[in-house]
Amino acid sequence: MSERNPGGSAGALRVLQLVPDALPTFRVDVSVLFGKYLPRYGVQCDVVGKTSDAPPVDQGFASVRRAPTGKKWRVELSYLWLYVRAIFKARREECNVIQVRDMVTHGLIGLMCAKLKRVPFVYWMSYLMSEARIDRARTSLRNGGGLRARMVLLKGLVEYSLLYNVVLRFADHVFVQTDTMLERVEQKGIPRSKMTPVPMGVDMEAVMARPEPRRPDGWETGPLLAYLGALDPVRQIDVIIDALVLIRQVQPDVRLLLIGDGSAKGDAQRLLDHAAKVGVGDAVRITGWLPIQEAWQLLVGADAAVSYVPRGRILDTGSPTKVLEYMALGIPSLGNDNPDQRVVMQEADAGWLTDSTPAGLADAAIRILADPQSAARRAAAGPAYIEAKRSYRVLAEMVAQRYKVLVAQQ
Hints:
By secondary structure, this protein is of the alpha/beta class.
């Protein structure tokens, strides 16, 4: 299935990007960076992915090719066939860069084809996929997992070896998520000189008109904390709820609004059960997933927003989006010491950086709620910082320049 965008610029540098996601994609570092902003800097993206249940949406790509829907095994085979055809049919006149995102085996195919065609090959690494797969499989085996866990572990180990010994080693360039990820990959023998960190950003044009604040029904008054994002167990939102218990010892009427949902049935209820267990069941609400504008309305209606990211070798290499959105909206925000989050909050001096304990989060929230006027003045520095350092406009300019240097060197 192929859709063309007649508005694509004929003279632009063209990137054939192969992604593991369903299209249209919900990942802003694909849709906003590659669909909206990179074309402004002379880079067009032809994207290949899978079909989602959502109807096709013009996300700004020069073209979109999607594998058909169906049973999982059929989708994977269809996608592989589409992927191989897209790469082997790519002509140098219409394809300046072949880029594979977060797919090791597919990356190997893309690398070989790019070398044959003498087109620069780029690997985009947004997450430590192989390491995460290995960790999950080993945890499953410790908990009694059987053959399936062993197969997942084998796949993770094979892909780990392929990634660092072949795909990244022979790639012309590697985009990583953060400086922390760059350092981890460099330790595997990949030269720092051929890696570029591209952290998550914010579409500042989308937040330019600050949403009208809104409070949940029945919670129109009183102190309110908010969290925006996934509620999966790996996110350890229990820590925020435990912090709420401590905050209520000082501010008895404070409440917590969790804007989002879990990926599995029961994730949200598990958090509500935990809140009831620790005595704050009436002070915690979960909205489920909302359109972004509705979510932002609830965010700016809160007195402060929380960004908690569990520490660990996998998540420490990531770039949290939550605190960026909070700061872009000018909301008093507190966040724990995830490496990338720590850099942002220290540089901007627009939020409250904490350690990763409930007590640390609670202390920052209590200070914000004790002096809301002062907190608002400090948070007002957030939008200018995000515009200058973490807007997709700035990130797109940097990425476009990297592509142009890479192509000029061929």
